[in-house]
Amino acid sequence: MTTDTTIRRIRAADATLTLTSGGTALAHHDVVVAQRSHSFLFGCTGFEFVPLANDEAVASDDGPELPGESRQPSAASLAEHWLDLFNFATLPFYWGWFEPTRGRPDTTRLRNTARWFTQRGCVVKGHPLAWHTLAADWLLGLTNEEIVRAQVDRIHREVTDFGGLIDMWDVINEVVIMPTGTTTDSPGSAARWGGSRWSGRSSTPPARPTHGRPCCSTTSTCPRRTSA
User: Fold this and answer.
1) Which terminus, N or C, of the chain has the lesser number of Cβ atoms within 10 Å?
2) Whole-model pTM?
């Protein structure tokens, strides 16, 4: 059985459609049938569209190309091509980016971006709620117990604030290499965050937020990592 016949057997079916107007079947009309969406999610990062969704100044492909310059498409042009292909967007919630100053999260801009995507028929996922890399530097001033508490509070805050716009989350990223992972731009922050999160893993779990589909994102499933 070929791939084509397998796809047709599993993903295709015959159907009879009757088009009506005011209850009367339409005859002798030209009709265009086009697929507008699909239950299969095919996605990509949507990081590039945060400025566009917030009406911020973005780079443009207008104007002459300078010698040695590789012209990049404008965000609007890129969005048009993106939406022609994908129906599933991932938005960035790296703690160091999202809340570089404690108590000042980038909620409004990310909500605007999530809404921009949902208005265009896309499902949106937040990534990640917990990760040892790109952790907020202000976590270094906290005790391990305070870091765990701040992390749990952060998860509840984002899942609640974005409920209805983002209902799918990578809760933990690269969990299999914690707490010893060293691939980070902030080793001290990674060690403190990973160690504190690891030490708190057996504590009583918090009440589950009422919104959201939790996921776990990882880059390694080898026995050496997963046996820890």
Assistant:
1) N
2) 0.70
